[in-house]
Specification:
By secondary structure, the chain is α/β, with parallel strands linked by helices. The protein has 2 domains: 220 residues, 3-Layer(aba) Sandwich (Carbamate kinase), CATH 3.40.1160; 143 residues, VC0802-like, CATH 3.30.2130. The chain contains 13 helices and 16 strands. The strands form 3 sheets. It has an 8-stranded mixed beta sheet with strand order 3-4-2-1-7-9-10-8, sandwiched between helices. Strands 12-13-11-14-16-15 form a 6-stranded antiparallel beta sheet. Helix 2 packs parallel to helix 4 and helix 8 runs antiparallel to helix 9.
Length: 442
């Protein structure tokens, strides 16, 4: 058994659905389970419809309805799927009307709203597979065993899901049926719909693979795999043949948008390989994510993340003082602020944060124990590679940055042993990535 997942751009219209179906048909002998996202930008359109309902009283779902009805017609499905789609569209219309009346969109209602995208896409896809003589069955995630807590917009699956998922899916696969399952969504024990947060559709696929002991997960996107750098910054970035879970997680956390670290955790537990492929370039080999690899080149990839805030906390009281760091970190925790990178010395600690935080009250509390300097407009440049060769990596990276007048303002070497990160100004991040990439890959 394998699990195949397609993102929204890969099922954006009738042509993309035909391509997706062809890819899956070629793998029928491998007993696939299919996980789908909403079609194209449907999720964004649903949220826009809710905003319009709240702000203007408009209750239109015309654009959403038109996309799905047009796709049904283009695929020649006709009445085959209308009996499943029409009630969903009616339910969606009623929900939008309700939102317009109460002028509010709670997290709970938001999850209910955006679930319609995936629920519509799997029904259309399953109906199309049946016209191709593939026995396909559309399943909402909760009918496939996905049970979550009630942390709406970022729900966590309950441990019961791990037993329920194979019980629901395995009999269908063994009977020669193609399950077509909604990604991203689940239900609570009280029968309310939740979403799984960032990377939720990928998480759906990897949970199914891990729970059902699948041979591999194939994640089909609109890129040729995981690249050595962002191709928007480095046009000659190269696809990686293989990468470890740890390396992929670090890349994702520090800016690469291919797979969210959370979505890989189920496969890490079971050592299930993940293959990232491009549905727009089927012949591209893609990137395989595995548990371990033999180390060869010093650097595997480079990424960056902009809009970072650097906070320097300086105090001579740190020297030899027990509990000072605890005071600093507990102050961040008190204000609900998550720290990304950390660097310390005898008299200072520097951390990086997301720029979206309001730091005024944090600064007031920190000033009671130390001097505080907050700098915005920073970026993290991250080098993923063999940290056992960190001296070589840093020497070469800083040499090319210095030659371009790029000053590193903070340095952190991750405990993961695959990550070296440094801070530069936002305006210099792209050039730093290009220079370091050229040094190691050209």
């Amino acid at each position: 058994m394998i699990v195949i997942k397609f993102g929204g751009s890969s099922v954006a219209d009738a042509d993309r659905i035909r391509t997706m179906a062809e890819i899956v048909k070629q793998r029928v002998s491998q007993k696939p389970v299919l996980v789908l996202s909403a079609m194209g930008d449907t999720t964004d359109r649903l949220l826009e419809a809710a905003d319009a309902a709240i702000n203007t009283g408009s209750c239109s779902i015309d654009g959403i309805q038109e996309l799905h009805i047009k796709t049904i017609a283009a695929l020649g499905l006709g009445t085959r799927v209308e009996s499943e789609i029409t009630p969903l569209l009616k339910e969606l219309q009623d929900l939008i009307m309700g939102i317009s009346m109460i002028k509010e969109l709670t997290k709970k209602t938001k999850d209910y709203l955006v679930s319609f995208g995936e629920r519509l896409s799997v029904r259309i896809a399953a109906a199309y597979f049946r016209t191709l003589d593939v026995r396909a069955k559309a399943l909402d995630a909760w009918d496939a065993g996905f049970l979550s807590d009630d942390n709406y917009t970022a729900a966590w699956l309950l441990k019961e899901s791990w037993e329920m998922i194979p019980q629901k899916i395995r009999p269908l696969v063994d009977a020669g049926v193609l399950p077509v399952i909604t990604g991203f969504i689940a239900k609570t024990a009280h029968n309310t719909i939740t979403t799984l947060g960032r990377g939720g559709s990928d998480l759906t696929a990897t949970v199914i693979a891990a729970a059902c002991k699948a041979q591999e997960v194939q994640v089909w996107k609109d890129v040729d795999g995981i690249l050595t750098a962002d191709p928007r910054l480095v046009p000659n970035a190269k696809p990686l043949e293989a990468i470890t879970y740890e390396e992929a997680a670090e890349l994702a956390y520090y800016g690469a948008q291919v797979l969210h670290p959370r979505s890989m955790q189920p496969c890490v537990k079971t050592s299930t390989p993940v293959l990232v492929k491009n549905s727009y370039n089927i012949r591209a080999p893609g990137t395989r994510i595995v548990a371990s690899l033999k180390k060869t080149a010093p650097v595997r990839a480079i990424t960056s993340r902009k809009n970072v805030t650097l906070v320097d906390v300086v105090s001579t009281r740190m020297v030899g003082q027990v509990g000072f760091l605890e005071q600093v970190f507990s102050t961040f925790a008190k204000h609900g602020i998550s720290i990304d990178m950390v660097a310390t010395s005898e008299v200072s600690i520097s951390v990086t944060l997301d720029t979206n935080y309001d730091l005024s009250r944090l600064q007031e509390d920190l000033l009671k124990i130390a001097q505080v300097n907050i700098k915005t407009g920073k970026a993290i440049v991250t080098i993923i590679g063999d940290v056992e060769r960190s001296s070589e990596i840093l020497s070469r990276a800083f040499s090319v940055c210095a030659a371009a007048g790029i000053q590193a303002q903070m340095l952190s070497q991750g405990a993961s042993k695959v990550n070296i990160s440094f801070i530069v100004s936002d305006t210099q991040a792209a050039e730093a990535v290009r220079r370091v990439h050229k040094e190691f890959f050209s």
